[in-house]
Amino acid sequence: MTNKMAKNKPTKQHAVPQCYLREWVDPNTPTEQEPYVWIFNRNERKGRKKAPSNIFTETDLFTLKLKTGEKNYSIEETLSRLEGRYASIFRTKIKNHIPLSEEEHIILCAFVGAMLQRTQRHKDSIENFHDQLIERVESMEQAHKAEPKESKRLKESKVNAHKLSIFQTLPHITEILAQMNLAFLCAEGGTKFITSDDPCNLFNPDLQWQKFYSPGLAQKNVQVTVPLSPNIKLCLSWSNLRGYIRFEKDRVEDSNRLMRAQCYQYFVSHSPKTQRIWFRRYPMDFFFILKILKHKVIAVIDILKFKIRHVKKR
User: Fold this and answer.
1) Are residues 191 and 298 in the same domain?
2) What span, in angstroms and rounded, lies between the C-alpha atoms of 302 and 290?
């Protein structure tokens, strides 16, 4: 009986939900095969076929490890319920371009909020921060010949840090997202959106020319985007962008370029075909290239001014 109960536990857990990835199933999958998507290494143009159930998965990714040695699956079970409600909303409303109710809007925002935090990139970031903190505390304990109590506590907290952070901050993130304007960008011209192992992106055009600040949800011009299927991409922003909006072919491909560039390790498509534009560093836009040149010239001038002032001080 115990072995049977253990087998029924949801130990195989997904950083990116299966219900989400299934939208990218190749429509040409042979009937005798399990439906698959095409997964690509970040900088490669040759993909491989994988079933959604077999990618971005890890044993006990969200399972809480208790001090008693037992495992608690409440986070994975809660995420599964949220995924089920989102999948129903997408299938019945979003896919058919129907406006959402207030409750459905909040569920969608909660799903996006969880997606922002549940990825392997976010997990690695939190655990790397803990590792750095532990290393510094250990060096201080050694320098003062103190017992390693604090470093031991930090090591214990690291075990569940990523898992707990998802639900510690989710209500606040959901509240902010629910206040933003909601738009669905609908691909035109036969083009399709791709997705990745880190599908939710924050982008602020005001910050793209500097390296010090990251996009934040409260910033005036920030956009939160996530492809929901090859045909529809969600956009949350503080701008007056609402409803279902037709998205031209060139803009879809440039969106795919950004998605590929910002993925952590892999991107996903419904097809084995890729486009060259996805691997370009900059969009093929004349005015954008002028902006790049302008900022490069300004950077060179600033460096020269600094060197001239340094020489004069001598």
Assistant:
1) no
2) 18
- The answer as to whether 2 is a domain residue is no
Same domain, 189 and 170: yes
Query: In total, how many domains does the chain have?
Result: 2
In a domain, 89, yes or no: yes
pTM: 0.86
Domain of residue 164, residue span:
9-283
Write b or e for each residue in 21-40: b if 16 or more Cβ atoms lie within 10 A of its Cβ, otherwise e. Answer: bebbbbeeeeeeeebbbbbb
* Same domain (yes/no): 184, 50: yes
pLDDT in single tens digits along all 314 residues of the chain: 334 444 578 889 999 999 999 999 999 999 999 999 999 999 999 999 999 999 999 999 999 999 888 999 999 999 999 999 999 999 999 999 999 999 999 999 999 999 999 999 999 999 999 999 999 999 999 999 999 999 999 999 999 999 999 989 999 999 999 999 999 999 998 999 999 999 999 999 888 767 777 888 989 999 999 999 999 999 999 999 999 999 999 999 999 999 999 999 999 999 999 999 999 987 665 444 555 555 556 666 767 766 676 666 66
Task: Single out the residue of 189, 248, 185, 199 nearest to residue 24, CA to CA.
Answer: 199
